[in-house]
Amino acid sequence: MEKMARVSTALGGNTLTGRTMFCHLDAPANAISVCRDAAQVVVAGRNIFKIYSIEEEQFVEKLNLRVGRKPSLNFSCADVVWHQMDENLLATAATNGVVVTWNLGKPSRNKQDQLFTEHKRTVNKVCFHPTEVYMLLSGSQDGYMKCFDLRKKDSVSTFSGQSESVRDVQFSIRDYFTFAATFENGNVQLWDIRRPDRYERMFTAHNGPVFCCDWHPEDRGWLATGGRDKMVKVWDMNTTRAKEIYCVQTIASVARVKWRPECKHHIATCSMMVDHNIYVWDVRRPFIPSAMFEEHKDVTTGIVWRHLHDPYFLLSGSKDSTLYQHIFKDASQPIDRANPEGLCYSLYGDLAFAAKESLISSDSNRKPYIGDRRHPIFFKRKLDPTEQFEYISSSSALSVFETDVESGSMDWFVHTAKQYALAGRPLAELCDHNAKVAKGLDRNQVAQTWTMLRIIYSSLGTMSSTNLNHSMGKGSTTLPLMNSFNLKDIPSGLGSESRLDRSKGESRTENILMDSSSTLINNEDNEETEGSDVPADYLLGDVEADEDDLYMMDHENPHAEEQEYSLPQEAFPLRHEIVDNPSALDHLQDKADSPHVSGNEAETVSLTPVESFSLISISHSLYENRLPSDFFNPIVRDTLLFYAEQGDVQTAVSVLIVLGDRIRKEIDEQTQEHWYTSYIDLLQRFQLWNISNEVIKLSTCRAINCLNQASTTLHINCSNCKRPMSNRGWICDRCRQCASMCAVCHHVVKGLFVWCQGCSHGGHLQHIMKWLETSSHCPAGCGHLCEYT
């Protein structure tokens, strides 16, 4: 504590003096409250209920309100509040549902004054009216709020929130009759104490329970709320509909919020679990706290500013059984520990780099950045000289490295996403369609990938060779088989070599035969013989040649020359002596330059042994003995990993969806989820919402499939009174009418319901469609020209 500062604050005739200090409590605290003159604080919990005097150097225990040998459950407090008009009046919310008031002016040891036992479950919150001495409000786990007049024995008003439980209630500081209530279903309701039958306003504030709320002490319409969704939101209640004006994202569920006195935009928060620290936020800068208090070792359960007009003293109680007074000058500043540099890519490929101005001010090549050339997304904050901390006045320099508009274009991504077909057709058609889309965008490697996937995984045995063809260069539409070759493509060294002269007796009768009768077409331009019906057989020869340039002529009787199998004399055929015969090469070149030779003429061509080739032919169909598709799964997996590492998650995810269970087991679930989330994020950045939703629906990853249900919320208003529908069902809470009535047949719509977004009237889909055939006006008679999409 040696480093702690001492602070003195003058408040009218009073002076607050103190330092950061703490005292140990007998038990964990659930709530604390301070008296009007900021000299005493009351601490309440399940096993503690004491009043401490706040001295200059320490806390001094003044009064223990738990009296008697066997204290009842009335002393087990969930909340406590000290009246700001009467320094002798306290109220507590008990865990057994009892609201108790305490009169410190009583001469006896037992200061208990009145008991209100109307709540059936735990009371979560009690609140005194800021100006009325005898008015007390409570909110309970039973879903009811009750207003008590302390001069009477029973409550004077009961308010039903029609929810499971009330988490917090707070009287408005500026509006005499208004109070706010927060609920476990995420709603916030505003009530008028004169009208206990129904709330004045209701809106959904958080995704999950709303644990706390606090009215701004200066601005009449600002209401801060905190919830389990780890957010603190500030709402402007001056408008006809509650408007969210600020939102602060914290790291844990928000248990308490308290506006900082004399600082309009500062608010203090503490967490319900995990995080033990107390944060003070500037709501205009929601990403990093302005100050942080780290003294508590367990969850902070209660925070309160010591005085309504003093922003420098903060009191807190915790489950670690300590009571602290925090001095604002001793608070740590998270901005000091934050990374002073930032780096980010824009949607268009521009790179932004922010750093301390002192680091890059010496760069003479820097030019002033006038703003984004497409969207004004960069702003410079004006400095406020009244800010609390000096670091606010420090400035950063932003450097933007722009890319060429066309080079960074992502049009191909958008077109691909819109045109790809991912489901609803056979696998072969999907692959063909996507290959065509990729090729049309000059993405030839992706197109080739789709083609290979089609060949590997589609059911090829039932298709003709013509349908299996795909473009493989030279504009050819033939399969990637060795159909023909050109003599001019033969290297010069091969022309003088004598070819293997394998005997017919060495041919295999099952799969391979020595096809010595095959006729050679030595024509440069002839890639496919007119009128020939080439079966899907592989041709393997002694000469290296292009796959598109080798083909067979005689296939009418492929087994005519098959003889009985005999074991060859040698394991490997002996190579003939190389004969130096340059005239043979000239002869071949002359034949290559000759005119086209027709199929009939080719049969009569007599070739010399030097010109003939021994060709190996697979006599059976190519697809009867092909490898199973599972054999290629590791290769396909590596291909998808390659595309993902290159940043093309679009191709990786599209192939995952199209192949489905064929490839899913080869890639771990975490990698798939990462690919899906990256692709969905890109789609949403380009506002391709429908395609993003389709990818989520077709996803093979369980964590992605549930995104639609988890992040989709429908806010429904009644078509009669235009108020939000709170209950599940067809009956509106306010007007007590069915909200889903068909404007044509006047019956309840139990299936598809279509409505006009202009007037909110609608009905059965078929009835509305039939009505619009004859009239464009609303069938409900409101006179609106309805538009249905």
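the 2nd protein, sequnce then structure:
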Amino acid sequence: MEASADPYSPYDGGGDGIPLRELHKRGTHYTMTNGGSINSSTHLLDLLDEPIPGVGTYDDFHTIDWVREKCKDRERHRRINSRKKESAWEMTKSLYDAWSGWLVVTLTGLASGALAGLIDIAADWMTDLKEGICLSALWFNHEQCCWGSNETTFEERDKCPQWKTWAELIIGQAEGPGSYIMNYIMYIFWALSFAFLAVSLVKVFAPYACGSGIPEIKTILSGFIIRGYLGKWTLMIKTITLVLAVASGLSLGKEGPLVHVACCCGNIFSYLFPKYSTNEAKKREVLSAASAAGVSVAFGAPIGGVLFSLEEVSYYFPLKTLWRSFFAALVAAFVLRSINPFGNSRLVLFYVEYHTPWYLFELLPFILLGVFGGLWGAFFIRANIAWCRRRKSTKFGKYPVLEVIIVAAITAVIAFPNPYTRLNTSELIKELFTDCGPLESSSLCDYRNDMNASKIVDDIPDRPAGTGVYSAIWQLCLALIFKIIMTVFTFGIKVPSGLFIPSMAIGAIAGRIVGIAVEQLAYYHHDWFIFKEWCEVGADCITPGLYAMVGAAACLGGVTRMTVSLVVIVFELTGGLEYIVPLMAAVMTSKWVGDAFGREGIYEAHIRLNGYPFLDAKEEFTHTTLAADVMRPRRSDPPLAVLTQDNMTVEDIENLINETSYNGFPVIMSKESQRLVGFALRRDLTIAIESARKKQEGIVGSSRVCFAQHTPSLPAESPRPLKLRSILDMSPFTVTDHTPMEIVVDIFRKLGLRQCLVTHNGRLLGIITKKDILRHMAQTANQDPASIMFN
């Protein structure tokens, strides 16, 4: 056999220009080129005839090695390309490999769309179940029940004989105090039942199914491994409990958790394709596309979904992933549209069409709504994080079921008397967004009509508010206070809970109140100079629904700090294409105001609270420290745990592994020279030694371990040596001790490194891990460095 040279592709490691070598050598012979001109062919032991199973995989709660995964993928791609001309079967395999990316995102889109449609339909039906039941067809919700009825009137289109409230069924009364109390009791009973069932299922079967899921998905996409977080049990329980949580009336939404559901689908389907199942970096490309599909079905906003994935959740987003995200979002939206869960032939519940343009003067109230959104965002993040931290540090956190029951009970008791809080939150937003046309019977549209207006036109002129509007405003003010308080305590409890819809509801309530105020101001003071130019008597100048839409966007922007994707989501959501400028003004204002109180959004705050190792690309590192200031070991620490190239035994290495908890060890030529050879991972060492003991005869505790190319000459009676050069990373990333930390942080962010070795004139000095960087950043920001708690 001839010695064949492996093609290594050079990779710029932040100025170090070290050639990368792939980690699994393919045959028994290979040529090693060590950055110079030394070429030598070496025969490895039969241990390396085949790759050691398990080497190159990762433990739970560890970070992936992006560079290694990219090398593995390039090597796989070269192998397939070199073989494809050998036979028709190899050609077919090559085509299958090329198309597998599109196949996996198609399947993810189909599954996400179908599950979203199912969740929408089930949540609507169970929400209405709290108030009554359809006797003619039990599976119909309230609206569907009255569609086919001939006895409905225009004013009371939601009342029909087929729909029975619980009071009618139990005590036979439709009106009166007895009926009200009975309906109240049944509402609380169903709300508590749904909440209890949801939290019990989460606690027993899938603890990872709670919360929104977006902070964890951001962390997973940055290269962290949380086993089971995107598994089939989590998917199944999250889908069921999401319906129950929304139906229980808690102040939460289903939009954030739908991103988690879509990512679970993407993860499960990626296991059908070896290209993705064996490579963690490639799998994250599928998850980026899946998160786009999740937002696409959550809001009916395919383009907004792609931008959300790019702006908010993805860590690594190549152009190929952009196209696949776009395709996944398209497929998911198409499936949802085919299911038509809302019965309005739209992708969303609150599609609106306004007919009046907006005027320049209105930018002032829009910017004020942006300020409100930023203040609400800053308040919510601080209050919610303080409450979640308290939950973690006190006994209260040990009783998640009790907490959910208490929150659900308080929510149900306070929500029922107020018609705006009793409504499903999505329905409430729909009502607040809707413009008052001639066909609206809501009390928000109870204006005093002008008797001179002889014909009904599409654009109804601005009119004085009637008693219904004033009482509605009072109810909305109470609903606003209720929503603000309850959302702080609800986000983070142990049921699936999204934040998009409650934040939008708070903004929509505030916006509608402001809109009505501006409308009345324009009606009574149309001779003021700001109104005189464009608002004549009898004209329709102000659209209160538009203010609700702008307020919703501003509040959601204040909490999440999204900008571009949020504006696109809102205009896709509502169809309000000509209102992009007001939306942009409000969203940017809310971001600036929110950033004045703290730079991080709610998801970043929860990532930090949970101690996930996440390096946020949006954060700037401005301190003038050097690599030597951050590296370990420090002066007071014991010396760095290292392996030597060829004078340690198997027993020495096993002792070192048992005595320490480090994830890897630098390999040096000798203790005297401290010259760096490479880096060996703890997991790979453990697996390789176990495998050698099982498969090779003569490997004992006193066997010499050799990381060098040539085995040193050993006495004749000594046991057989163990060669572990194949598991050694020959080109670990190194920086000198005088490298500014600003550059080191950039290298970690852009290459997704786990660790970086620090050298001085080629001698090993220390090591910097991702955790060290996070601790150092916490210290420079005067935070507790011990809050970085995951291994």
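The first helix runs from residue 66 to 83. The chain is about 50% helix and 5% strand.
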